[in-house]
Amino acid sequence: MTQDDGLEAYFNAARTTAPAPSAALLERIAQDAIAAQAPAPALAPPPDAPQPGWLSQLWQGLGGWPAFGGLATATMAGVWIGVYPPSTVAFAAESYFGSESDAYIIDLSPDGAFDLAEEAL
Question: How far apart are CA 6 and CA 9, in angstroms?
Fold first, then answer.
């Protein structure tokens, strides 16, 4: 037998029955914790986000950098072809629109088609 055998009965009793704290003790502990806690700072409302301008809205509406990269490339290609057209473009345009001597045949009057329709009746 060791010296601890006499205390073993008390240890077993303490392990099986733990005393519950009283409600008054728990209330005092909660009040002390609330009193020791730092007060919460007042939260300021978040600032209003600035509204984007019309140019920024246009930029985002067209697609941003990728779209404007393609738009700038197409614009520069159009200016380049317009200023220095290759001979094939000039030949294709001339064959499509006809030669310059036949330009007097084109009637730009909007009523010309109606006159032809009335004469057919």
Answer: 7
Distance CA 121, CA 118 (A): 6
Q: How far apart are the C-alpha atoms of 81 and 50, rounded to whole Å?
A: 42
25-73 residue pLDDT tens: 999 999 999 999 888 888 888 888 888 899 999 888 888 899 989 999 9
DSSP for 38-88, please give it: PPPPPPPPPPPPPPP-HHHHHHHHHTSHHHHHHHHHHHHHHHHHHHS--HH
Q: Are 102 and 108 in contact (CB under 8 A)?
A: no
Residue 15 has what pLDDT? 81
